[in-house]
Design a protein that fits this description.
The chain is mostly helical. 41% of the residues lie in helices and 8% in strands. Strands 1-2 form a two-stranded antiparallel sheet. The radius of gyration is 12 Å and the shape is globular.
Length: 75
């Protein structure tokens, strides 16, 4: 992504905190937040995100919360 290690909190979907390979939808900057939103609402770059239906609402809330935080930091 950007050559740096990121904690689980930098991802919108973390089904297993002990396995970074399961983490999806990075949200550590506005570019990634935009990509995560696109992936949640349509097929982003032709790849639909695979997140269980029961987790989708919480994932979207996390993305939107990070978006608000990043926007606040920019102003």
């Amino acid at each position: 992504m950007d050559g740096e290690a990121h904690p689980a909190s930098d991802f919108a979907y973390v089904p297993d905190p002990e396995k970074p390979s399961t983490w999806k939808l990075p949200i550590f900057n506005m570019r990634h937040v935009g990509g995560a939103l696109a992936a949640m609402t349509s097929d982003y770059r032709g790849n639909p995100v695979e997140i269980p239906e029961g987790d989708r609402r919480a994932v979207m809330k996390k993305i939107l919360a990070r978006k608000a935080k990043l926007e606040q930091e920019e102003s």
